[in-house]
Amino acid sequence: MGDVDDAVLGVFLREGAEKLADLNALLLRLEAQPRDHVVISDLVRTAHNLKGGAGTAGLGPIADAAHRIEEVVLRLRDGTMAADSTVFDALFASVDALEASLSDLTRGAAELPQVQRVVQAMDRLLGDDRKAAIASDARGPAGFVLGEYDHVRIKVLRQRGKCLLRVELSPPATEADPVPWARELLRRLRRQAEIVATLPAEVDLEPLGATRRLAVLCGTDSGSAVLEAALIAAGAEQVAIAAVDTQGGTDDTDRAPRPRAKGSVKIELSRVDGLLDMIGELVIAQSMAANVPEIACLSSRRARQCLGQVTRITRDLQDAGLRLRMVPVRGLFQAMARTVRDLARKHGKEIRLITSGDDVELDRSVVERITDPMVHLVRNAVDHGIETPSERAAGGKGQAATITLAAYHQGGSIIVEVKDDGRGLDRDAIRAKAGALGLIRDGATIRDADLLNLIFESGLSTSAEVTDTSGRGVGLDIVRRNVEAMRGRVSVASVATRGTSIKMVLPLTLAIIDGMLVGCGAERYIIPTMAVVESIRPLPEAVVSVAGRREMLNVRGSLLPLVSLSQLFQVEGGTLDASRGLVVVVEGIGRSVGLIVDSVLAQQQVVIKSIGSGLGRAKYLSGAAILPDGKVGLIVNVDEITVASAQDAAALPDAAQSPDATPAAGAVSNPEPREVTNEQR
Amino acid sequence: MAKSILIVDDTETVLMFERTLLRNRGFEIRVARNGALALQEVEKSRPDLILLDIMMPELDGVETCRRLKADPATRDIPVLMVTTKGESAMVERAFQAGCNDYLTKPIDHLELLSKIQTYLPR
Questions:
Q1: pTM of the complete model
Q2: Which of residues 43-62 of A touch B (CB under 8 A)?
């Protein structure tokens, strides 16, 4: 059984965690609407499933705890317990404790000290009357040990007009091993009677070998004479039948409208990724096949139609595959609901949480990577954005504040927004702080949006009015860095006394990017469009040499360091000279660089394939993609190139001592390069 | 021929346990995750016995049992209700609906096997 047990435990750890998350979300809903019967029914069922799962996985204490949670919820439903904050606090704490216990179990812990506390906390809510109710259960009539619901069963037998009989018999003396005989007899007896219990119990009839007495409690409408005859025909000796008088049964009504559930299957992530890899291979194979000259020049209309269909299906398959990794943001929002509740209580603020777009789907890894930023933004909103109820009242606002979490599609991106109706950002404080840090000059005019964006600068997080200093040492700069690492961006809007909104603009998936396909010699590279500022065909005189070695490009008076992709990746035959090729201006971490390429070929959506960890020059690549002709294009890692250009100039082939990009007046004779395209997004 | 058992439950852990245990004993196992799906499966595959969870979304075990027992084509298939503590009212209705027997979670594997054996037709 060991393997089965381990496998069952594994399933439970996953399922149990889901159920606890559901409980959390349902409790939040119930707290908002204590009379919502659908929610209560869901709570009962969820606690119930948790109990059943835990018991089956051999985790009795967790099952006990879940059972008590269920009992508390049942009392809330019946109205025999008031749904006040004490009850909710205890329930939330219990869910937390069970979540922690599951984590402990996952790590292989043998002891679950928190579970006992859950049991105690629930028992305190339930009071003492519960124990008495349970204790009376096990005793059965005429010495039988009754199971959980045998009383109920007896009650129903009586309702249906059956007689309850106690049958006592002995196996035939000739039967050396009476166990198989007894089993067969019980099978036959079941045709005429409903067996409630046996002594010894049916599960373990072994004692029969010694006692040679079998007692059966059963309900039947056959007369006892008929039954006796049947038993004797089956070989029983010394049959004694007596009517039994019992009363049993319990009363409580139990009905629940069942919410509609979508069918779903749980799949391990590694399998999904395996499938996606295979789809990737298929896309390549299909693409290569279509480009084989003999196939590409087929003139048969039918053959071309079929090929077209294969292409379409392959693309659809790729889309469907990518969608497999998508999960709704609901789970994330639910987790935030809990954070808001706890923080609001802690700070004595009244906050209503509204979510919209719960069904909007994001790549699973995007969701994982915005979880910390979300927590941070929500904490900021509660800690600093939202005023105390008295402040709000003084400002003529309703006492209850609102935090809105919204997710929606916009263009090819998904926006996740955290909005509050609090006091708004203090522009003067930001300006003062930014001035102190040297981010802006005193008295300088700065666009309002740029001023607000300063809150994402590191170091600007010390003013309590602006950002969260309490807690985990994560500033808004980290929020921005996390989001930008996913090729997303953040923006902020704020109106004094009306509130603040922070938007995270996120890619639909990390698996696909919009790229600019560029040529370098015979090679092609992909530059993420997100990073591209503009493309320039420079005049020879705009290219200058700094310190006699490093080439820079004068762009409207600013010097931009240049990096030749052909030289960086040692491509033969590629352009090294900026004035003979094109310069794609890209923006990496806080800095711009001009990439020298031969030509800009196309705008292309590509599926990223990992090329493993970057060693040597490979660190300037972030992945590879299959191009429509089946060949591989490498994706340029703009951040690495800009960082290397700025910090470690020696790492780049075009090494210079001083890659200074500040305007150098007079260094350039003709400061106006011609602009060919503008890809700025 | 191997006897077939339909397991109806919406708790993955319980499904896993019952399925593994019974499959190891040579039963042919089918699975449904709610009562409505169970009725479809019964229609299709006519199992020899049904293990029916009592509290489920969509169509609960009690109603599923009632429908099975009301249909002359399926009424003879033994139905064992799988229950947990604290469900007496539902269990009572399940008995009224004609379920043959019940098991209580956490399920004891010996009890499960012995109950199944006594209800399965030869």
A1: 0.48
A2: 44-45, 48-49, 51-58, 60
